[in-house]
Amino acid sequence: MKKPKKSFVCPRIIVIMLKSILDDFCREHKVGDYAYTEKLQAQTYERFEHWVQLGYSAELKYLQDHRKSMRENLKKYFPDAQSALVFLFPYQKHKSEKNTAGFLSGFSDEDYHFILGKKLQLLGESLQASLPGLEFKLALDMHPVLDRDLAYRAGLGFFGKNSMLIHPKLGSFFMIGSLILSQCLEHEQREVMQEFCGKCEACLKSCPTQALVAPKILDAKKCVSYFTLEVFKEGVAPKGAENGNYFLGCDTCQDVCPWNKKHLRRSEQNRWETYFSRPLSVLIEEIQNHSNKTYQAFFKRTGFERMGKRGMLKNLNLIQERLKKREPRD
Ligand code: B12
Ligand code: SF4
Ligand code: SF4
After folding, report:
1. Measured distance between the N- and C-terminal CA atoms of the chain, rounded to whole angstroms
2. In the annotation, is 149 catalytic?
3. Tens digit of pLDDT for each residue in 124-177?
4. How is the chain split into domains, by residue range?
5. Which candidate in 109, 141, 219, 251 is catalytic?
6. Using CA atoms, how far apart are residues 284 and 278, in angstroms rounded to an integer?
């Protein structure tokens, strides 16, 4: 009996197929840039460890417990890791008076973790179809990976003095999402990028709370972003927060960055910006009228779900107090 012919796929064909899968993905999902790396070891892990030791990670337990050392090497998170594909997802940066940080509403109405997570998952699955035996894991913010370091060592940008990863063409208004792969690909690898801040210190000077305690070093305890997005109950706002423009997240140290100037534009408000542009008293009353359950249902799958009703009211009440203080007295 004749043996069935083994189908043989020449590696060159695989290379072409992978390239076309990746190109389609980037086009379809408006990826700003992507790169491939086989560097599994984080290059700035010691700086991160030192930062935690100095107490700059505030109450962010996931940076302090057993998940801390997992960030040193991709193998500690995914033992089969051999390489990674790192993607930059730019978000539209709207300029509005009532400021919520761009990443919260920049990916249509949903929390970026859902939207980008789904996209990366599907990409991983289509790579599996071309590369038998491929396993992968996602790295998207909440996974124990130093995302900026991974993008940095993949050659996608440099660390600015505001500690953001800055891409020379895209600036810093993007989220980083990666696929960690159990195989190496035939793909070019880029050089690590030099820093291009020069003498500029605009971010250090503009931070309302002086949370950037030195170039590239942020003290989360003083940061408006931390206080408004990571503290879910009433608390004392960092000194100077009353001079800031933001009440959910903070983009000040990016707004002033020359690498971002061309990416700031006035454009139509999206759903959440319109929602938060209403008078403060109306917003507070409406949110107070929610039970915890209806709050969760109303903000389901958005960047505002996680902070809960209590955390949201904490931020809104703070601006209200601030505005009251500014009102002229009789
Ligand atoms: C914890 C955290 C926070 C904390 C602490 C921020 C911080 N700077 O660490 C808080 C809540 C304050 C925060 C705020 C924001 N965050 Co945040 N956050 C994270 C998270 C989960 C971990 C970051 C971390 O490990 N920090 C540890 C410190 C030590 O890292 P680092 O500040 O980046 O410091 C590095 C450099 O400074 C470098 N370094 C220091 N000195 C030197 C010297 C040289 C020569 C070199 C080469 C490097 C170097 O080494 C350090 C270690 O890697 C990551 C997701 C992830 N899994 O990585 C997202 C992440 C960093 N956040 C992100 C975003 C978008 C934000 C906000 C813009 C959100 C907002 N608008 O409110 C702000 C930005 C504030 C800022 N200026 O950093 C993005 C950043 C994208 C980008 N372009 O860089 C990330 C990567 C999420 C993602 N997957 O896209 N965040
Ligand atoms: S996010 Fe805001 S508070 Fe935090 S370091 Fe930047 S400017 Fe300062
Ligand atoms: S504002 Fe200036 S110093 Fe800060 S990150 Fe941008 S270029 Fe660097």
Report:
1. 102
2. no
3. 999 999 999 999 999 999 999 999 999 999 999 999 999 999 999 999 999 999
4. 14-181, 202-326
5. 141
6. 10
